[in-house]
Structure formats: structure tokens, C-alpha cells
Design a protein that fits this description.
The complex is a heterodimer of chains A (331) and B (251). Chain A is 72% helix and 0% strand. Chain A has 331 residues and is an all-alpha fold. With 251 residues, chain B is α/β, with parallel strands linked by helices. Chain B has 2 domains: 166 residues, P-loop containing nucleotide triphosphate hydrolases (Rossmann fold), CATH 3.40.50.300; 72 residues, no CATH class. In chain B, α5 packs across α6 and α6 runs parallel beside α7. Classes of the chains: A mainly alpha (331), B alpha/beta (251).
Chain lengths: 331, 251
Amino acid sequence: MTLSQTNTDRLGDAGGFDFKRLLLSRELIVGVMILITAIAATMLSPYFLTAANIKNVVIGMSIEMIVAIGLTIVLLSGGIDLSVGSVVALSAVVIALAFNAGLSIPIAIAAGLCAGVVVGVVNGYLIAYVGLNPLITTLGTMTIFRSAVYILSGGYAMSSIPGSFKALANGDLLFGLPNLVVLVVVLIVLFHMAMWQNVWFRKFAFLGGSEMAALRAGINVKRLKLMGYVICSVLAALGGVVVVARLGSAFPNTATGMELRVITAVIVGGCSIYGGRGTVLGAALGVLFLALVNNILVLNAVSVYWQGVASGCVLILAVLSDAIINRGKRS
Amino acid sequence: MTAPNKVVEMTGIEKRFGPVEVLRGVDFELYENEVLALLGDNGAGKSTLIKTLSGYYQPDAGQIRIGGQAVSFGTPHEARDHGIETIYQDLALFDNLDVAANVFAGKEKVGGGWRKMLGFVDRNAMRNEAREAVSQMAINIPRIDQEVSAFSGGQRQCVAIAKSVMWGRKVVIMDEPTAALGVRETGKVLDLIRTLKSHNLSVIVIMHNIEHVMEVAERAIVMRSGTRRGTVNLNGPQDRESHDEIVKMLM
């Protein structure tokens, strides 16, 4: 007998804690999968549990983590953003150009983030106010801004980046933890808490649940949608800042195909492609899980060409498990 | 004996869409604390009349009075600010969220102290108030912290109505609340409508099923081709005379 049946005599009673729901939550499932994968990886390769390898994995996925936070917000609110990869590259190139022009580090970072704001406003305006389809709109802006990256950079890698800027990303100021890891953890905690508890950020879940109901509840749906795309693009632009700082150069082909990798990870982490469901923590775990799977492949000298097969299989298994868990529930 | 107060009074409402005259000078009144059924064939103008009252349409002529005060609604929000809530067939619920979030949608409570600074919501307070609101209804909600997508049609109606009760509305308009429900659920929703009176609400229900109308409503207004055909006072489900009268007006 389920909890809900035993409690019908008590009207509207919360009736204790719903353990079954917690056990079936995607965050926990992915968390357990991560543990299992990590244990398997330790057994498969002696190099997995070395500081160098862990550091590599964690730093390697930091940019995708940052991008995943923004995509979670957009997906939760019922949209999609394919332009994030292009925004990462655009921001990176704008920063490199700013350094070329002799501007200081804060101004260069601000310029990169501004590029994100511009793309976000373009996406958001077309989708929220003009009413275009988000998939097609961001497919368009993805192409446009990728071209813009090549035009701005002339197709060359730009590497006149000041050393102090590189030190920001590659240093470890806090207890020997790499700065990037600290940044990513802080962002994930901040955004997860905000989406969970903050009145304004919670509106994205309302919007994704039912746009009509959100409208009737007095939520300014258009402005909220626009803001979702702006936040997503600004986070992607922050990813671009990190790319430049970490690699010390801005390549025009930076983050090509990243949008699909991150969308895959976010969905593995429990986000619904139809909106209304998903958490930042889940998305981060999704990114971590896929990064671990890829790391196992690399450590066992499996050709990198197999990574796509692995992530694709994980994605389909995730969606399949969802279908099995939700079978029999009312739709 | 004093006559019961009119919560809503509409006089001479006219509305045309291009060449089509949808409402031709309709008078309408809703008394305090009554359940009024609005009947009529498709195209009789029920929906247009209701949408005029809930602010979706602006009448071409005529006057609307709420509690004796003349009003004109430019938007549904203005109507809602005057205490008129419309519950549509689709209920406008957030399937992905729990009862408390649905009840408080768009007006979530912010906690005190440090939570206020961060704009954090007060989940417990919202849960308790939502539980309080739904527990007064005639339908059981099993878990207050469950997503409403798992609920039955009747339970969903209950959540939608709890929202209006919670926000102190005066008038609730329900558009075919029993359409698409099974026999048992329909019975529950009819019970629910009856209990609304104890919350000082006046209810307008649009319904096609005369049996259901006889069960819940105290008065029925029948509309036909944009005019008010007549009014029938109802005395419970056994009142054959009123039943026949309604049928005659609908024919």
C-alpha cells in the first residue's frame, strides 16, 4: 500500500516524508551511477584515482558545468538554447580582441560577458516577444555567431593573453583547490539554491509547467523568458572567459558541438526537454557522469571516437529509465 | 424581508464581433452566496457573457456593477482584482509543481529575516496555508507536497478552487467543471461546488447537463441567440417542474 492511500482520512496531510520519491529522484540515481562508475574506473585503471587524473577530469568539465547551469534554466522554463557553444567562442574571441587592444583584465572580462548579454537579448527578444520557435531561433543565432567568431578572429587562434589572466584560472588560492573548481562549485550551489528557494528564480519552473497558467497567475511571461535566455548566454560567456584563461588562447573553433554535449548531460541529469522539470544539481551530476564515462574510455586507451557512442547510449538509457519509472503514472 | 444583495449586476450588455451580434442587450444578476447555473446552446452567448464579466472582452454597450459599484475591466487582471476568478476547463494548473506552489503561483510567500534578504520562499508557511485551504473542500487531497499531475480530475478542480478561496475571491466562474469527468468524480465536484457557499463565495457554473444543474444550482439562467431567455428558480434534484421549464426554454 502506498503512503497516499493510507492517508486519505487525513485531509491534505503531508503524511511524513516521501522516501519513495527521493529514491526515484534523478539526482540520487545519477549520484549512485557516478559512484558505481567511479568504483568500476578504479578497478579498470590504476591511474583513475590519482590526483592528476581527478584534477584533469574536474577542470576539463568545468566549462561544460557552467554552460549546463544556464541551459538548465532555459530547458526548465520550456525553451532550448543551441547557441551556447557559439557564445563561448564569441566571448573568448572578444576577450582576446580586448587584450589585443591593450585593455585591462576586468574590462576584457566585461566585454566578453557583454557579448553574452547581446546574444541573450537577441535570442530572448525573438523568442519571447516576436514569438519565434526557440529551437529554430537559436539554431539561427548559433550559426550567425559562429560565423561572427570567424570574422572577428580572421580564422586564427589569438594568443596574446596576459599571464596574470591565465594565472586566474590555473591557480589554486583556496586550500590548494584549483580556482576553477571553486568557481564552478560556488556557481552550482548559488544557482541551485536560487532555483529551489528564490521567489524570482522559481518562476522559471512555473513558466515551464504551463505558460498559460503562468500568464494567468500574473507572471510577466515574456520578460521572464527573455531573462532566461540572457542568463543562459551570460553563463556561456563566462564559460568563454574561463576557456581563454585556462588555455591562454582563443580558438575560433572553441566549443564546437558543445551545445549538444551539454544538452545531453543536462537531460541525463533529469531535465525534461519539454520544460517544467530539472535542477541545477542534477545537471551538474549529469555533466560529471558523462565526463567520468569518457575518462574511463580514455584511461583504457579506447579511441576517442567511441566517446559519442558512450554518451549517446547513456542518454538513451537515461530517457528509457525515466519512461520505466513513470510508467503507470497519469500523464 | 430584505432582498438578497446582488454581487454582480450586468445590464444591457451588447457585444458584436464584426457583423455578428453575439450579445443583444443581456441583463444578468448574481446574488450573494448563490450557485447560479448558466445554460444555453452552443453559440447562445454564454461564454461571451462570462468573458465580458471576467475581463477578456469589453462590452460594446451596457454596464457591469460589482457590489453595487460600476466597473469596467480592461484586462482579466482587473476583474480578478475585483474578486472575480474564472476557472477554465483546462484549470491552468502547473502539473510539475505541488499543491502549495499551485495555490501560491505568482504570489509566493517570502520568509522573514535572512530569507527575506535573499528572496527565499517560506515553504512551510505556504504548505500549511495550502493544506488549510484544501482541507476545507469536499475532495481529499492525499499529499500536499505531491505534483498535481498525479491527481484525478476532481482533485485538480479542488486545487484550482482552493486557489480562489485562498485569495478571497467573491465570485467564482466555472466553465463546464464536470465535462470530461467520470460519474464518481462528477459527484465529488458537484459536492465541492455546494461547499463553496460556506466560503462566502458566489458561483456561476456553465453546464450542459441539466441533471447536474438541478443538483447544485439554486437558480438557472437560460440564454438563447444572444438574449436571456428566462430564469428558473430550482428546488433540488426532485424538482420536475423546473426541470421541464429549463428544457422548454432550451428547445
